Amino acid sequence: MNIGRNIGEAAQASGVSAKMIRHYESIGLLAPPPRSEGGYRRYDERAVHTLRFVRRARNLGFSLDEIRGLLSLWHDRARASADVKALTLRHVADLEQRIAELAAMRDTLRQLAEACSGDARPDCPILADMAQAGFGLAAEEADAGGNSDGAVQACHRHGEDSTAAS
After folding, report:
1. pLDDT digits (tens, 9 = 90+) for 81-126
2. Which of 4, 18, 109, 153 has the maximum number of C-beta atoms within 10 A of its C-beta?
3. Which of 20, 42, 62 is where one domain is finished?
4. Secondary structure (3-state) at 126
5. How far apart are CA 6 and CA 36, in angstroms?
6. How far apart are CA 108 and CA 130, in angstroms?
7. How many folded domains does the chain comprise?
8. Which domain, by its residues, includes 137?
């Protein structure tokens, strides 16, 4: 008798691909399910619920290790909600750090794009900035308080110098 869902049905019900279900099993995030007489995996409602939990946690940006901790707390009826909150707030702090780093990258790229004339000339401050990475621009950026204006100005100088030298 086949009880539960096969992997395709579990994937459809949970929103997690069959490949990821197998991966979660292989890393111990999901317990290996019982097998049918024919050797096929059979997932009960608890497993599908766990997969939905994992999918939601992944959508919120939690790492697999963080999800492992959340699952452990979820299954522990004696847990303290303070533990869940602490793990979540650490994740929020990590997200804020990543957001700040991404914003800094966006600002640098925006400044570089604004410095580029975008015409038929070969001089390109964007490429010049990337080519100069590690050759004194880090010091200029540090002197400028961490913003990339120094890098953009250096690109302008590089572009002007290369045009004047031709």
Report:
1. 999 999 999 999 999 999 999 999 999 999 999 999 888 888 888 9
2. 4
3. 62
4. helix
5. 9
6. 11
7. 2
8. 112-165
Closest CA to 2 of 35, 49, 47: 35
Tens of pLDDT along 49-70?
999 999 999 999 999 999 999 9
| DSSP-assigned letter for residue 12 | H
Domain final residue pick, 62, 77, 95: 62
Q: Which of 37, 47, 57, 59 is nearest to 7 (CA)?
A: 47
Q: Bridge partners of 66?
A: none
Element (H, E) at 13: helix 7-14
Token pair, residue 22, equals 């197998």
Exposure b/e, 69-91, CB count within 10 A at least 16 = b: bbbeeeeeeeeeeeeeeeeeeeb
SS3 1: coil
Three-class secondary structure assignment of 38-77: CCCECECHHHHHHHHHHHHHHHCCCCHHHHHHHHHHHHCC
Task: Give the pTM.
Answer: 0.70
Tell me the CATH number at 51.
1.10.1660.10
